[in-house]
Every structure is written in structure tokens, then in C-alpha cells.
Specification:
With 357 residues, the protein is mainly β. 8% of the residues lie in helices and 59% in strands. It folds into 2 domains: 173 residues, no CATH class; 179 residues, Porin (Beta Barrel), CATH 2.40.160. It has 3 helices and 20 strands. Strands 1, 2, 3, 4, 5, 6, 7, 8, 9, 10 and 11 form an 11-stranded antiparallel sheet that branches. An 8-stranded antiparallel β-barrel has the order 12-14-15-16-17-18-19-20.
Length: 357
Amino acid sequence: MRSLLAVVGVGVVACATTRVCPTESRLASEDRPTGRVEWCAKPAGGVSAMPAPGRTYPSLFGMAHPSAMSGGLRGPYTHWYPNGGVESHGRYVEDGSTSVPNGVWGFWYPDGTRKRMGRYELGRPVGCFAVWDEQGNQVTGIVEGDQLLLQRCEPPTDDALTQIESRSHPSSARSQWGDASLLVFGQRGELGASNATQRDPDPSARATVQAAVRKHLGRFRVGPALGLRVSDTDNARAYSAGVVAAIGVPLRYRLGAEAEAQLGIQYFGVTASRMDVPGVGSASFWAPLGSARLAISFAVMPTLLVVGGLSLDGSPSRDADRDVRYCAPLCSPPIKETWNIGGAAYGFSLGLRLMLR
């Protein structure tokens, strides 16, 4: 009998993961801010747009239950997080004019670890449920309404959950290639080219605009980045190019965290203007660049994220000699000057990230 239940469980999951719906129903899907939803609906009188499932959390064990829907749902139902991990999976059956959850349902945390598993009979939770905390520790209990009475019991077989976990991403998420982002960094700090003879002897970093495209390799991201840094004076700016590498960690609901490092080079362009020499000149410098970022992302849509966080940019300090010619409009003989290159800048970032498929 137990092996028969396992076979049935695997068959249920196969329907969802291969997108096969019961007879006289069709697959429907929707991308929403909370992630992708797929369900089976009858062509005639079915549900063309999935309403938001109701969730309540009245107990310490988070016994939220899938809600009844308007009639027309019949078969597998799967909801994914924006990061592509499965959030919940089960089946709906029609009960009069409504569709209600029926059979074994599983729920997962955003990082893919199990959250809860149990059985429903025509919308009502029955029998033994298994609940996991975010560290993977399991408890079992008999569910009564929205409360879990802790006790040793045998929850439904986890064969169905194992099958879903091995194929937990919808087709659209599996084809995700990477991301492209445009970020603005508000900054402070002495990062640039300074010279005590200048009208602006020590310009400070004000802001950086950076564009990056990154390939996703599991939780790792890597790709090129280009940036433009402006200072608190119009006489100095810097252009940067480098490679960024990051690791992302999904958090609860639509949130994610990320740590990123960047290595590259930067080109400083300076409009020189001395107090003791009329006219203006120009000087340019190359320097290595290192950056570190900590960021939090919020999924506005499955393919669009708002990203914000903290940043630190730095370059080793060194002296560089330049022969600068000042013109106004006649040009003076070259003046040999020693500039200090490098420094550090810190600040915060805010921008948008588009997920690429």
C-alpha cells in the first residue's frame, strides 16, 4: 500500500513538472511580482487569471494553507519564488462552484529548504503535518484548524517533495541567463587626482553611475562593468572598466542579498587650473580599481529588481609627474607637476536590475 502511494505521488508531480493537465483542462500561467504561477483550468468557464492565494499565519508554526479558488481549477498547481525556487505545490479539485486543495501539498523557503508538508481533503487540512524551521530542524504534529498539536506521527511520504525539488524551476526560470543592472552610487571620500597648486586641490568623489551585465552560475554571478565617477567639481571625472563577481543569497518573500567584488582599471581626466598661472590645461592618469559591495534586492516583478546597498571603492595612492601646458588662449611652456593619484570612496547605491533569459 505504501509503495502504491509513492507511485501515485510521483505521478502527481510528473503532471506538474512536465506541464501535463488532466483531461478537459489546459495549462495556464502568470508571471506576477511574487513569482510565477502555473495551474490547470477547464477551457470553458475556467480561470484566465489566477487570483492571489489567501494566506494566514495564526500560529507560531506558520500554518498557512492554500485557499479555495473560484471554480475551474482542476489538477496540479505550482507557485515559484521570483528567484525560480518552488514556493508551494499541490493539486486542486472542484467542489461544487469552487476549487479547493486536495491531496498532499508541500511548501518551501526561498533558499529551497523544506517548510511544511501535509494532506488536505477538499480544502481541509487533515492528519499529520511535518514542519521544518529555516535551519532544517523538523517537528511533526496533528493539525487542528490552523493550529499544530505537536506529537510524534507519520506525515505523508516525501517522495512527491523529492521529485518536485529536483525539478523546482519553471521553464521560464530554467532558461534564465543572467542579469543587467544600472546603479547610481552616492559617494564621499578622496578618490581621484589631487594637486596642491590647483584651484580645486583635492576634489572628492560625489557619485558613480555603473552599468553591468553578469552571467549566472548557480548563486554566483560574473561579468563586465563600466562606470563613470564625477567629483564635487566639474574639473575632474573618472571612467572605469572591470570585472565583477558576486554571490547571491535568497531571503524571505521577494528579498535577496548579495556580496560583490570588482577588479578593474580607471582613467582619471582632470581639467587643470592653477591660481598662479592663467588659463587651463589637462592631465590624465591610469590607476587600478578595487570595489566591494553589499546589497539587498527587492523583486518588483519576476524579471525586475530594485537594488540598494553599501559600497567601497579604492585605489592605491601614488605620485605621478605630468608636464601640463596652460592656455588662455596662448599656451605657456610645459610646467612639471606632481599629482597624487588614488584614495578611497564610500557610499550607498540604488538602481534597477533586469533579469535576462
